[in-house]
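Input chain follows. Return C-alpha cells only.
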Amino acid sequence: MKLKSGLLAISPLIVFVTIYLVTSIIARDFYKVPITVAFLSSSIYAIAITRGKLRRRLNVFSRGAGTPEMMLMVWIFVLAGAFASSAKAMGAIDATVSLTLSLLPSQMLLAGLFLAACFISLSIGTSVGTIVALMPIAAGVATQTGYSSAMLAAVVVGGSFFGDNLSFISDTTIIATQTQGCKTSDKFRVNSFIVFPAAILILFVYVFLGRDISIPTAIGDVDFWKVLPYIVVLLTAIMSLNVMAVLTLGIALTGIIGMMTGAFDLYGWFDAMGKGIISMGELIIITLLAGGLLEVIKHNGGIEYIISLMTRHIHGKRGAELSIAALVSVVNVCTANNTVAIITVGSIAKNIGERFQLDPRKCASLLDTSSCFTQGLLPYGAQILMAAGLASIDPIAIIPYLYYPFATGMAALLSIFLRYPKRYS
C-alpha cells in the first residue's frame, strides 16, 4: 500500500489520539474528555473518508461493531458487572479485605499489604476497586507509624495490578482472550509463568523492607460466606468452566448468600445487579465503537498497512511479540486506560500473531501484561490518581516505589527474548 493511501486509512486512529491525548494535555486532565466522545468523533471521521454510499459505509461500521466476538464480549461485560455489583452489595469486598488481613503475620506489613492487594484484585477483577478498599488502611498505617505514604500507596497499587492482569473477571483479561480467540484459563496459565516469578521476587523485597512495621490490630469481622462467591468463581474458572457459566454461578451465589445473611432482599439483589449492568455501559459503548472503527480502518486497508509498517524489519517471532507489546503500550500511554488500549489494538495483534504463527495464548498474555505494566506507571492513570487522592500525596511521589509494575515489564520482555514459557512460544 502506498504511503499516502496508508496514512489516510489509519488517519482515524490519528484523529482519535489527537482528540483524546492532545486535548487532555491542554486541559491538564486525562479525564476531562470522555473517551466515548473521542471514539465517536473518530468513528464519524472514519465513515466520512470511506468511499461508497453512506448506507454501505454504515454497514461496514455496524458489521465490525456487531461481530459474534464483540457481542460475546458485551454479554460477558453484562454478567461481570452484575456479579461485581451484587458481590459488593452483599459485603464481599469488606469480608475479603478482613479475611486477608487476618491471615497475615503481624510483622509483615508491606508484604502483607501486597499479598492482600494481589488476592483482592484477583478475586474482584479490578485494580481501582482494590485500591479503594485497601488505601484507607495503608494511609492509616502510614499516619500511625510515620512510614512513607508513597511507599505504602505503591505497594497497594502494585498488588492491585496483579489481579487486574490475571483475574478471570477483569476487563483486560476478557478483552485480551476474546480478541485473540483463546480461553481465559489458558491465558491464566501462560500469564502465571510470566508474572508469578516477578510477584514472588517483589514479595521478598517487601518482606525485607517492612520487617520492622506491624499490621494494624483493628480488623473487621471475617464472614467467610461472603468471600465464598469469589473463591468459587476463581476455582471454577481455573477448572476451565466457560466464563459465562462461571459468572452466572457467581451471581446466583451472591444472591443466595446475600439474602441468607440479610445483606439484601430479592429486590435489593435485583437492584444491585441492575446497577452493575448499567455501570458497564461506557465500556460496552467503547467496545462497540472501537469494533466498528477498526472494521472501517480494515476495510480501507489500514490494518494491513499498520502490520506491514510494524513488521517491515521483523523476521521472527521475537520481533513480532515485541511489536505487539510495544503497540499496546504506546496506545495505553495515549489513552491512560489499559482496557481501551487492548480493545484498540486487539485485532491488529491477532493479525500479527497469525502472520508470524504466534500462540494466541501468549499474545493475549503479552497484551494484558504490557498494558498493565504501562498503566501501572502512569501518574495520570486512574489507579495512581485514586491512590494519591486517598493518601493525600502527589501522584509523582508514588512512581519510584512501584516495584511490581517495573518487575512485570521486565518479566514480559524476558518472556519475549528468552522465548518463555517454551510451550507457548
